[in-house]
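Q: Convert this sequence to structure tokens.
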Amino acid sequence: MNNFLVATDFSAEAGHALHLAQRIAQRTGAALTLLHVAVPSGPGAPITAENLAAAREKLHALRERTQAAAPGLVIKTIVETGEPDECILAVANHLRASLLLLGTQAAGAFRRLAFSSRAERLVRFSSRPVLTVKVIAADYAVRRIIFAADFSPETERAAPGLAYVLALYPDAVLHLLFVAAPGKNRGDVQERIAAFSRRHHLPRATAAVVEASSPALGICRFAERTAADLVVLATRGRTGLGRLTHSSVAEQVAGRALPPVLTFPFAAVG
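A:
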């Protein structure tokens, strides 16, 4: 059974991530694990037994509310102490989580320590797919999906991950997006996108080529212009050469784009 890990600091944003995790789990039959990492109240302050007991009680209450909303789901809880990034990644790896979900604040809002820049760091270092969520409506539905890539031969390795998303939302419109640097020769990018669409039987997909000073900016602007419900990116990590598969692009998009952003390393889907 798939296992989704939802990291929560009990914020509104983390609540949105849990709501989306619940909805996807109901579609896929995945189990949910709710993780809270208890941190000191200040530098040098201890984490007391009372602090841990309060955290466990709060997480248990969250589990009960989620279970009441989705009676059929298998839901577990974990409370950890330590450096949050390290704990979240360690638990995700230990559970072999198929998806890690995080809440993060919208750009321009006051950025708390938890799940703002943290989400960007976890996107960078996670070996597992990460879904970052800022805010979703109660009736949230995925009708428009953006898959941004450079459509080089290596993009083929991202096809299984994209296919998984499309199987979840078969009626969604898919935009295959390439962001070009201003004034640069676009070469055969339109043909590369069309070939990718043909190979993977995406007759409803539309190709989009936009110019922007950076890939992340182009993706975020296109997501806003098309009212996208989900942005999907595959990354090669910091050693990759492609502009749209560099992990820093995924970090920036996860931090800035308004809709939920799903990022996965090629190794996680190939």
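The first strand starts at residue 3 and ends at 7.
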